[in-house]
Design a protein that fits this description.
The structure holds two protein chains of two kinds. By secondary structure, chain A is mostly beta strands. Chain A has strands at residues 5-7, 10-13, 19-24, 31-37, 44-50, 53-57, 64-68, 74-78, 87-94, 105-106, 110-114. In chain A, strands 2, 4, 5, 6, 9, 10 and 11 form a seven-stranded mixed sheet that branches. Chain A has a four-stranded antiparallel sheet with strand order 1-3-8-7, with no helix packed on it. Chain B is mostly beta strands. In chain B, strand 4 and strand 5 (44-50) form a beta hairpin. The N and C termini of chain B lie far apart (41 Å). The chains are: A mainly beta, B mainly beta. The A-B interface holds A 4, 33, 35, 40-45, 48, 55-56, 58, 90, 92, 97, 100-109 and B 4, 32, 34, 36, 41-46, 49, 51, 90, 92, 94-96, 98-107.
């Protein structure tokens, strides 16, 4: 069974740039969620994708966007990077809505530093 | 709306001592509750979860938690701490119907001294 994998593991960007983070879901899972974890904080929900569509969104501006592909992998895109976007970005996969008990399976994250 | 409060950003114990990490939740609907552990520079790993049924749930690495509806609590315990338990622990809540997203607490860092 293949777990959730994320890439890149670390990256450094400057303010105003754009970034794309990638995630492959665990085998058998077709729902992907993204979380932002700032230093010293708990993860904050960004959005969830199911059947290649956004299925729920947290309190993040539109410059945070995503995609889900037919193989259930996903991307998180952030435009016009700000210093406060520096964080660990966590991808999590799960069984589809209505078929799971809320349990998420997390990848190891992509650490983004914005200078 | 749902929320989680974790009392104590840091908890220090000696090896072999009881571990108690506190979590209180707020939820307008019956909740599902979780404890996750995060080791340095890693993602989150599920320790245990409460969905329905038995209110005392056992997880990995000897941890357990008890769902107490009257106290809106879901405290995490382990009878005897081990050095390898040193990590960040997060309590999380979601609702049991409809769209589910995990709402996390701010975390408690467990320090274990020899």
């Amino acid at each position: 069974e293949t777990g959730v994998t994320q890439s890149p593991t670390h990256l450094i960007k400057t303010r105003g740039q754009q970034v794309t983070l990638r995630c492959s879901s665990q085998s058998g899972h077709n729902t992907v969620s993204w979380y932002q974890q700032a230093l010293g904080q708990g993860p904050q929900f960004i959005f969830q994708y199911y059947r290649e569509e956004e299925n729920g969104r947290g309190n993040f501006p539109p410059r945070f966007s995503g995609l889900q592909f037919p193989n259930y992998s996903s991307e998180l895109n952030v435009n016009a990077l700000e210093l406060d976007d520096s964080a660990l970005y966590l991808c999590a996969s799960s069984f589809p809505p209505g078929q799971n008990t809320g349990e998420l399976f997390f990848g190891e994250g992509s650490r983004l530093t914005v200078l | 709306a749902q929320s989680v409060t974790q009392l104590g950003s840091h908890v220090s114990v000696s090896e072999g001592a009881l571990v108690l990490l506190r979590c209180n939740y707020s939820s307008s609907v019956p909740p599902y509750l979780f404890w996750y552990v995060q080791y340095p520079n890693q993602g989150l790993q599920l320790l245990l979860k409460y969905t329905t049924g038995a209110t005392l749930v056992k997880g990995i690495n000897g941890f357990e938690a008890e769902f107490k509806k009257s106290e809106t609590s879901f405290h995490l315990t382990k009878p005897s701490a081990h050095m390898s338990d040193a990590a960040e622990y997060f309590c999380a809540v979601t609702k049991n119907t409809g769209f589910q997203k995990l709402v996390f607490g701010t975390g408690t860092r467990l320090l274990v001294s020899p």
